[in-house]
Amino acid sequence: MKVLTLNFLTCAVKDCKSSNNSFPLHPKDAELVYDDLEINPQLLVNVLPRVDWVALRTTSTELGFPELPEQPPTVEELESDEKMLQDLHKLLMETQIMEGKLVCGNCGHEYAIREGIANFLLPSHLV
Amino acid sequence: MLPTPDTSHVPYQRVYEPAEDSFLLLDTLSSPSETAFLTSRFGNNINTTISTSSQPPPPPPPLILEVGPGSGVVIAFLTAHAQTILGTPHVLACGVDVNRFACAATAKTAARAIAEAKDDASSSSSSSSPGAGFFLDAVQGDLVAPVRAGMIDVLVFNPPYVPTAELPAQPQPESEAEQQQQQQRGTVVRGGRDGMETTDRLIAALPTALSERGCAYVLLCAQNKPEEVKEQIRAMGGGGGGGGGRWKAETVGTSGKQAGWEKLQIVRIWRDYDGVAADTTGS
């Protein structure tokens, strides 16, 4: 599962939807791999406004990446900063969680990731 | 005709094979009326240079989600031909399926279709830029439960119960228990009592799940009483997205062939803001 995907997902438990603590989910025991993808600067620039930056900062730190700046870069900053583009490309698009868990900060439920596929199906008592 | 994604790697013992319903979705989504609709909502002229401060920022890339992608043929098709269908290659695509094998199959089908689209673009004599979008992931889950509210811009749902005649062949039951199991499976496949239990749950989730500019394509068969379903959708409240748009539901594709009682149709569901507030569709 890509880090960018994680930015769109939340706890599947209904009661957690209204809680701020259910997003982002927190990676645990994460084993990372890095895909080798061609960088697409335009896509990155366009995607950035869709990214919840606060959540991405949390995820990035939890996965052991260097701390991201407090504010997202502006379009101009991103376009003129090759290193920033490369770093965000690597973090958002190339980094995959292959094994591990995603933990909800509200209910504590752990979603398993195996072979890169996260399982959000809930046991019957949580549905 | 846009090429259909290759699904030869999909294990059909465990994942539904693309059938008439899938192909109706491909035809409908790539039809002139739907590419015009989708492009008006999400299109982005990328031939202009990267935006400068004097230009308005381009619309953010749409998030496209298929619920129950199975082999992945539909979401792979949408992603690989994003420029043609949505008017922009800046598309983020994902899938949610209860079946783990379907998740793996979908990711592979999408990766292959995107690679093929890029090859075609680089080998063709025209200078067309590769028009493929970006595939994120397929995750295991129930309908839209794992996705944050208000994120989905294009949702595609092909309920797993039609057409019954196209289901993979079942081995002959060897015991009474097995026969019972198959009958139960048949019930699930047909979507419960009147074939609408799963679809009803999905429709009920749309006001929360879709973004303000979001739309959904849902496949129905004649047995689902599509006219009644559309009326129910039009009566829905505005939902979490705010904006106050009115819900619309129109049939935008039908199967020409009469497959027994299961004539299929694709219903497009979206919010219309005409006369409510500023028109966000850009039309």
From TrEMBL, chain A:
Transmembrane segments: none annotated. It comes from Bombardia bombarda. Its main location: cytoplasm. GO terms for cellular component: cytoplasm; nucleus. It is found in: Cytoplasm; Nucleus. Pfam families: Trm112p. Keywords: Cytoplasm, Nucleus. InterPro entries: Trm112, Trm112-like. It comes from the Eukaryota. PANTHER family: MULTIFUNCTIONAL METHYLTRANSFERASE SUBUNIT TRM112-LIKE PROTEIN, UPF0315 PROTEIN-RELATED. Belongs to the TRM112 family. GO terms for biological process: rRNA (guanine-N7)-methylation; tRNA methylation. This is Multifunctional methyltransferase subunit trm112. GO terms for molecular function: protein heterodimerization activity. Gene3D superfamilies: 2.20.25.10.
Automatic annotation (TrEMBL), chain B:
One of its GO terms (biological process) is methylation. GO terms for molecular function: nucleic acid binding; protein methyltransferase activity; S-adenosylmethionine-dependent methyltransferase activity. One of its GO terms (cellular component) is eRF1 methyltransferase complex. Residues 165-194 are annotated as: Disordered. It comes from the Eukaryota. Belongs to the eukaryotic/archaeal PrmC-related family. This is Methyltransferase domain-containing protein. It comes from Bombardia bombarda. The lineage of its organism: Eukaryota, Fungi, Dikarya, Ascomycota, Pezizomycotina.
